[in-house]
Amino acid sequence: MYEGPGDESGPLRRKRWKQWALVIGVVLVVIGLVVSLTGVWQLFQPSNARPTDVELELPAQPVGGAFGEQSPKWADCGGGFQCADVHAPLNWDELEGDTIQLRLVKQPAKNGAPIGTLFVNPGGPGASGSEYVRNSIAYAVGEPLQREFDVIGWDPRGVGASTPVTCLDAAGMDEYLFGAGSSTAERGSDEWIAEGVAASREFGEACLEQTGDLLGHVDTVSTVRDLDMLRQIVGDPKLNYLGYSYGTHIGARYAEMFPAQVGRLVLDGVLDPTASEADVIREQTLGFEAALRSYVTACLGGQDCPLSGTVDEAMAEIGALLDGVKEAQLTGTDGRTLTASTLLTAIITPLYAESNWGYLNTLFETVAAGEADVAFALADSYYSRMDGQYLDNSTEAFQAINCLDYPNAIDAERMREQAAELAELAPTIGKFQGYGDVSCAGWPVKGAAERAPVRAEGADPILVVGTTGDPATPYQWAQSLARQLESGVLVTFEGEGHTAYGQSACVNDVVEQYFIAGTVPESGVTCS
User: Which InterPro entries match (predicted)?
Assistant: First the structure.
């Protein structure tokens, strides 16, 4: 069993981590955790019976690379859920080498006679599927599917209670994510880019020191192979899968690699497999600018809006808040100083769901009054931070996975051109975007992933769900994936927010009839 090199060294000592994690391409950081801000300060409150607290017994070590023949030792972990750990190879090209473990959480079918297993992934990359099912089953999967399927969420390799990517202690993460930094270089200059590459390298080296060889094997292709292993373990001849956001990328790549094993796949909030890192940053920047504009329009037309004037004037007002944060030096009650990057994260977080737009009223009102605590509460909710501690490793895993999935080389002139384009196309938030290549330029392990279309020739029909007002995974990505897939069926939700299942009775019916009865809608069905 691979355990990594960090067993004896303990947490890293606190270092001076500049704020490059968010200064560079903050929007790429929000590819998508599917969460509901029903109460920002309680968003990541641990449940009373977390599956990670249960003592679990691993099955026997697979012999001869037969990982799909394991028998999980399911244990009760409260609330009607069962938990188990299983082995997976550290490197799928070396089946006789070291192994890692993967955490699973299952809710057995409520009717007692499951028609199969439904695997669920919430996105990220870096989000815990086990915690998603354990704590948010009603939000993740509708009651009809809970009745008919065993529902399993798993922590992908490097994530959560599976063998994790580990980089910094809480103090180090605070400095990396929220520290003011000391750079006086002009944004976009050679000196500024060099500082960013150095910061990325320093963070990556900390991850490598604590995580070891696993850091080079948390790519999406390895996770797809894990998922097919899990399908074999539960005994399903074909995979039934519900993937949200980045989870759609796992599902699409699964269909490409294992088309004959595709059962019923729903991909909701789609990441285009052909999109480069620059494409992702560009389209998400435009998406969040548009979502912010939709919020402003609704705000000005309602009551108690902290903004005023026309939509353009109110957008400029938000831009002025972002521009003025550095000079204002607003400090939270815990001593952290608010930066434009942290404020932008706070703005983006509620834009994932229209029902959460009200948090922006409070945010803009308090920041304009010189108060930073609401901004930090929103940013903390995104980073799973509570009372100065991080409840998971989602940020570390996010960086590690993306740096393998989006290998790139620094091209300073191209990045400057993109940054200028974003500032013009998205005048409120665009000036804080671009330069995404810097975030992985100094990463200590190199990925070999290619951004390529998926065909999944011979696969059963796959539902591709897109929301017209989705800021994180723009609708055109769903259209693109549906065209790429030989058997892709596009389902359109005319609405706002990230992902559609659970937000529309029409979408719910289409998805649930597909999973339960195999009913495939005509491509082009539209719900509102």
Answer: AB_hydrolase_1, AB_hydrolase_fold, Pept_S33_TAP-like_C, Serine_prot/Carboxylest_S33
